[in-house]
Amino acid sequence: MTFTREITGRLRSQRTPFYYYDMDVLRETLTIASRESAARGFTVHYAVKANFNPVIMKTIAEYGFGADCVSGNETEHALNCGFQAEETVFAGVGKSDHEIETGLRLGIKCFNCESVAELKVLDEIAGRMGKKASVALRINPNIEAHTIRNITTGTDENKFGIRITELDKVVTIMSQLNNIVYRGIHFHIGSQVTDLNVYRNLCTRVNQIYDWFTDRGLEPEVINVGGGLGINYNEPEILPPFKEYFDIFSIHLDRKIRSSISFELGRSLTAGCGSLISSVLFVKEGAAETFVILDAGMTELLRPALYHAFHLIENLTSELPVKKYTVAGPVCETTDTFGKFIALPETMRGDLIAIRSAGAYGEAMASRYNLRSLPGSVFSDKL
Ligand SMILES: *Cc1c(COP(=O)(O)O)cnc(C)c1O
Is the CB of 228 under 6 A from ligand 1? Predict the structure, then answer.
């Protein structure tokens, strides 16, 4: 994404703050992700929670990706944006009855189920609706052990997934539920993973768990290995390492596995194409720093306030010598700060600021706190 003078000029005429999406970057990212996954026989579902903007969603659907949803509304929205029900999965540790009904009514591919309690409710609701619910068991693989049977410790406090030690019980109960159709297994180890060795470890665990299921006559039709591929927030132009990522699974998943392998990518597909564009309201001297106060804050982009996330910040309109600033938003919270001691060309009221790599978990997390307006979205195709 390059902010040429011409693009910056056009962005200037829009009312800030807003999200700017470079659709060429999105298409390039989707092209590579779909090519590299297809080349290895893998399927990718887009994790809708990263960005549910309809224009972004429709573009992703056009590339043939499935959808990975974590609420009933996302499931409905995905289908409205062109995703196929047969390629839509619904995950989440707390699905309400209404959301389960929505998934069943829409005929989605699979519920990623996280507990025995959920399996029972799913069975009951499906029975009442005269439907069968396809299920993948979400397994929490986050356990240090070399073989499945020796595992004695688990992340008991982790709310996600079914612990490996519980699998025996879960499988027994599942076999007694008439409206549940077992389709396979699901994993999701976390987000913004940049050490790809983690995925090698995941493959080892998946191989073991595959054997466990197959030994019990439950060969999974689908193995969903989740998402989490990280991006380089320091260098927004670098595309995520899709080839290396998919290669790891292609090399380290056991050759004998015949299940279809699917992925759930969110951040890596949409983060790079989006920037939050904001205007400088005031520059003000503090005791130890100079503050740049923007007209965008944690209400537009929550990640820095929520978990100290780093986003590259650029001044698009100043070419003066560089100074250091603390860049903050207008919201009445001290954590409403995008970065401290950030090098920017000398900045003044009215300058246009781009906060980069904000296409994932940006617009989707916007809130109306302080009764602020939700940010708009501007697309390079229509600029
Ligand atoms: C959030 C989430 C993803 C996507 O994670 P990314 O880091 O955005 O790729 C995938 N699967 C599940 C179950 C999730 O909750």
Answer: yes
- pLDDT one-digit tens code per residue, 322-378: 999 999 999 999 999 999 999 999 999 999 999 999 999 999 999 999 999 999 999
Q: How far is the CA of 123 from the CAs of 104, 132, 239, in angstroms?
A: 11, 8, 42
Q: Which two tokens stand for residue 156?
A: 């008991």
The CA radius of gyration of the chain, in Å to the nearest whole number, is 23
What architecture (CATH level 2) is domain 23-271? Alpha-Beta Barrel (3.20)
Q: At what angle do helices 54-62 and 72-80 cross, to 10 degrees?
A: 60
Q: What average pLDDT does the structure give for the chain?
A: 94
**Topology of domain 5-18+272-382, per CATH?**
Lyase, Ornithine Decarboxylase; Chain A, domain 1 (2.40.37)
Whether ligand 1 lies within 6 angstroms of the CB of 362 is answered as no
Spacing, Cα 218 to ligand 1 middle (Å):
26
CA 145 from centre of chain = 28
Task: Specify the pTM.
Answer: 0.94
Output the CA 226–ligand 1 centroid distance in Å.
6
- Pocket lining: 226 vs ligand 1, CB cutoff 6 Å: yes
Domain ranges of the chain: 5-18+272-382, 23-271
Distance 273 CA to ligand 1 centre (A): 18
First to last CA, the chain: 14
